[in-house]
Amino acid sequence: MTENQRVIAGRYELGNLIGRGGMADVYEGVDTRLGRTVAVKLLKSDLANDPAFEARFRQEAQASARMGHPTIVRVYDAGEEVTTDVHGNQHKFPFIVMEYVKGQLLRDLLHERRLTRQEALDYTIGVLTALEFSHRAGVVHRDIKSANIMINEANQVKVMDFGIARAVSDSSATMAHTSGIVGTAQYFSPEQAKGESVDARTDLYSTGVLLYEMLCGRPPFKGESAVSVAYQHVSEPVVPPSQFDETISAELDAVVLRALAKDREERFQSAEEFREHLIAAVNGSPETIATPVVSPNATTAWSLDTEEEVASPVEVAEDDFEALLGDLGGNRTTVIPSVAEPIKNVASTPAWDDLRTPATNPFSTLGVELPTQTGSTPAPLLANINKPSKGLMWTVGSAVSVVLVGLIVWLFAFGNFNLNVVPGGGIAVANVVGSTYDDGYNVLTAQGLLVSKVSEPNDTIPADTIIRTDPIAGTAVGDRQVITVYVSSGANQVKVPSLVGLTESEAAGVLATFKLTLGTITQGNSGSVEAGKVIETIPGLNMQVAEGTAINLVISNGKVMVPDVRNLSISDARNALSAPDVALPVSITTRDTCTGAAGTIVVDQSIAPGLAKQGSAIILYVGCAG
């Protein structure tokens, strides 16, 4: 049995190879137990060498599986496939079974062509919507990049590989113990490049890189190696996107630059905030956006960059990053050369010194004075405290009481204390069926539950009304459980098709294919549509209507309404009779023999004003000029 014919975990039959990356190969597969098409990602065998990896990997996959959202590729299953080669050696292949999405990787789309502005904005908003949901669920992606984003056949974003980056970064088999770095250098946040801990704002930085790439047709930083690119993320200023596309507004520039702030405290603090500012910038709304300072020499530095793209490394050499981390931390003297120009030791540059925040005294309000700290190494906190001021003990006691009372109030207000429990433990899902989505969302989140919204058409339930939930009302669930809320989008909408020129029976057949019905039939005049065929529809062509809507037809009676053109000039009369709704052939003559020139005013017409058969020839009579 060949590689792409074998069965994984006794139920997933592998088909064609549909993707290949630095960490895994992806196959189209079939879940033989449920009979559905799936995507099976087989990770490289060396990722399973660490005994802790399997547990971490399964835990993260299970966390991802709980995130049901239209913008996130669902994870159905995960585990390890063990094979034995001809020499008797066993090999472990961690696998993930995911939702099969028909579409194209955003990475491939970017390689094919330059995206439109609207596409770049729509795709970014889709990614931010996915991140808003995942961050609320406590899951940080850590590896947002174009290769992890699918664009499906409906041109909608599907983000994949949530939680997998964390599982890989915690595996000592593939990453340095000290750095814990994972991802692609092109999309690294400064904190990832420095080996620091990451949070939700790390994902927002990577999304900013992605937005920049889609807007400009190139990433913000390029270099000959992954190390040089990572270095630029930490220390080099970002060139505003408008310098590559002058049609980009200052407001959109500001949004991108804020998303790419080196200090995460200066970035957008949530995916929702990022999305709102992006929409406001596009709409020209006056939003207050703190714009990071851009070096006046930034353009010069860019002009020296190589045009060669970094070869999408998923893993960067440990020795290279150890050297890089040493420089950034100031503990080594090794110099990492920049692609743009030679760089001094980063530890001594003002840009890095600015990231050091001086310590403040948290006890000053209680009368405790701390000595001023100098240097980068903090002195023991309690060893140098001055003698407390008079009444300190009373002040401390009062402060502690206030803090305790405040803490209790905060816990009850924001700590998701939930009294709606069921016998035996767990939270009983509230019944929100029939409520509006906003009302239902507020009720469920007040219970400490997460909400995933799924819209579906419904002919009888009004739009924005909750149809059902999964799990259903009354089910006992754990804290922060995802509740899928199915919300009516109203009757499914379709566009009225073109029916002009069809017979009544032909039009009825077309309407049926669009799930529309035949309405009333009325007769109408037409200068071009022959008798018995459709002139127009009500509602009109391409109007959005609900499925099942009755479409009224206007059928040609084969006649036109002849206007009265007497006393008009020949020119005006011709125009009136050649109009599309009349379209009669016109000839001009005189009733009497004129000794001079013929006149220019119509004195009579061969067809009286009123209904006449379409296409009838009409004669206009004029008098003599003199």
The neighbouring-strand order within the major sheet is 1-2-3-4-6-5
Mean pLDDT: 76
Q: Helix content range of the residues, please?
A: 25-40%
Which parts are unreliable, with pLDDT below 50 for 5 consecutive residues or more? 167-183, 286-387, 412-419
Per CATH, the superfamily of the largest domain is Transferase(Phosphotransferase) domain 1
Describe the structure.
The relative contact order is 0.06. This protein folds into 5 domains: 3-99, Phosphorylase Kinase, domain 1; 104-172 and 181-286 and 297-306, Transferase(Phosphotransferase) domain 1 (Transferase(Phosphotransferase), domain 1); 427-488, Trypsin Inhibitor V, Chain A, CATH 3.30.10; 493-557, Trypsin Inhibitor V, Chain A, CATH 3.30.10; 560-624, Trypsin Inhibitor V, Chain A (2-Layer Sandwich), CATH 3.30.10.20. The protein has a 6-stranded antiparallel β-sheet with strand order 1-2-3-4-6-5, covered by helices on one side. The protein has 626 residues and is α+β, with helices and mostly antiparallel strands. It is elongated, with a radius of gyration of 35 Å. 28% of the residues lie in helices and 21% in strands. The model is unreliable at 167-183, 286-387 and 412-419 (pLDDT under 50). The longest helix has 23 residues, at 392-414. Helix 6 (200-216) packs across helix 8 and helix 8 (250-259) packs antiparallel against helix 9.
